[in-house]
Amino acid sequence: MMPKWDKKRHVTIISKWWPWHACLILLIVGTLVGCPKSQQDEIDAQIENLHSTSQDVRDAAIEALVKIGEPAVESLISSLKTTNKDIQTAAARALGKIGDTRAIKPLIKLLTESFDIDLMFETIVALSSLDEKEACRELKRLKEESNPIIAKLAQKLLKDSGMCK
Fold it and tell me: How far apart are the C-alpha atoms of 83 and 86, rounded to whole Å?
């Protein structure tokens, strides 16, 4: 035999206990699903990893930023403005791999202000992956650079990439 429905009693029980049950359900669902970071949080975390002294950590951050792609470009461009050559080099590499043309002017600016050979090399490689008139103009100018390493690199990249015809 079923107990008789006591509306007042059941409403009282439900009104006292439903918030706890709802919280428990949300806690379980939140734990199972996880709370994903926002994309900008992920970009910021990877940009922070570019500051690592470990080349492996920086390389992993570059690959993560490349996978994110276009949304990471502005943060990477901002990273070019630091005075840390390792961060600038990593940012230039990531920008070259992403291939977004917004990086052309900041990369050219970095190239004209840098005297670090590794940074210049990475910047030239990044520019060579951007098939745009301004990048081509800069690479052609670099063929005449007084630094023979930079001049040969620019010449080789122009020839190998087939760009700027």
Answer: 9
SS3 53: coil
Average pLDDT across the chain, whole number: 82
pTM of the model: 0.71
Residue 53 pLDDT greater than 70, yes or no: yes
d(CA 38, CA 57) in angstroms, rounded, equals 21
Look at residue 7 in the predicted model and tell me its pLDDT: 62
Query: Distance between alpha carbon 89 and the CA centroid of its chain, in Å?
Result: 13
Looking at the structure of the chain, the number of domains it has is 1
60-63 contacts at long range (C-beta below 8 A, 24 or more positions apart): 61/90, 62/90, 62/93, 62/94, 62/97
Q: What is the CATH number of the domain that holds 137?
A: 1.25.10.10
